[in-house]
Specification:
Layout (H helix, E strand, L loop, with lengths): L2 H8 L4 E5 L5 E7 L2 E6 L4 E7 L26 E2 L24 E8 L3 E8 L2 H7 L4 E9 L3 E9 L5 E3 L1 E3 L2 E3 L7 E3 L5 E4 L4 E4 L10 E5 L6 E5 L4 E8 L3 E6 L1 H7 L11 E8 L5 E3 L4 E12 L11
Antiparallel strand pairs: 1-2, 2-3, 3-4, 5-11, 6-7, 7-8, 8-9, 9-22, 10-21, 11-20, 12-20, 13-17, 14-15, 14-16, 16-19, 17-18, 18-22, 19-20
Bound molecules: 6-O-phosphono-beta-D-glucopyranose.
Amino acid sequence: MTIQEYNREFGNSEIRFYTDAHGLACVELNNRAGRAEIALHGAHLMSFVPEGQEALLWMSKKSCFEAGKAIRGGIPICWPWFGGHPRGSTMPAHGFARISTWEPVAAGSCGKGAAFLELALTPGLIADEFETADFLVSLRVEVSNKLSVALSIENTGEKAFSYSAALHSYFKVSDIAKITLSGLDGRTFIDTLDDSTHLQQGDITFAAETDSVYPDTEDTCVINDPGFKRKIKISKAGSRSTVVWNPWAAKARRMPDFGDREFREMLCVETANAGTDARTLAPGEGHTLQVIIESESYTASDGYTDSG
Ligand code: BG6
């Protein structure tokens, strides 16, 4: 379908399809409470700005915006596998979903004062991976002063299949060395840089490359950012695993779509079904992985006042 046809079928005063500066088909959801931009390439959430606030998501200035490549930043959809494929690097990292084109299937306003959009992914290459095309994959995005992103998978066939997934959210921070991440205190985590297991004690601070999987947590995480004087709250459903990632300087330099110093401005807190939290769907079963993102300004009770 063309942009005009998308607008005729799904557009309204809050939902507008357009072609962006990189030639990607995109859709803007804009109601009085917030604004989001989504590329149909990857069903990729590229920005979310609650009304009267600054952008919550980070995008790399060096991101690729082309067929076959993932966009760097925002919320990539990792599915039907998270990380590398067991068969190795001939398969794309983090699965096909983030490099496939999704189609809009529904859009409008929902009762909570939010604009919503639903996108679907056709089986394509994933049918070969699962040896069946009998499944439905959809992404529902709701935008108000909060952002909700929900990835639903349904097994409509007669054969079970398994997958892992993540809503690989990149958050914009003032300075990675000065923020903290709370919500994972007392949880076990695997440091994937050396495969060691640890117990998280207190809030997480960042002073080096971080790539950690927390395999058993349903908890809400909060990014405390004194530089931006805000807290970003990341709550979730249908997820028992959280991944925390920052590439730091050396890995950022090795990544062609990541600016050398951009690691200072971002933190990934990924709502996942990863590792032991991978899912198997029997015939007729479905599962939804959801993240809800919102931000709150610092107040006096956070030890912050305008006079300093
Ligand atoms: C994280 C992984 O989820 O994604 C990291 O834990 C990885 O190991 C990062 O480097 C980025 O992956 P990609 O495929 O987008 O470069």
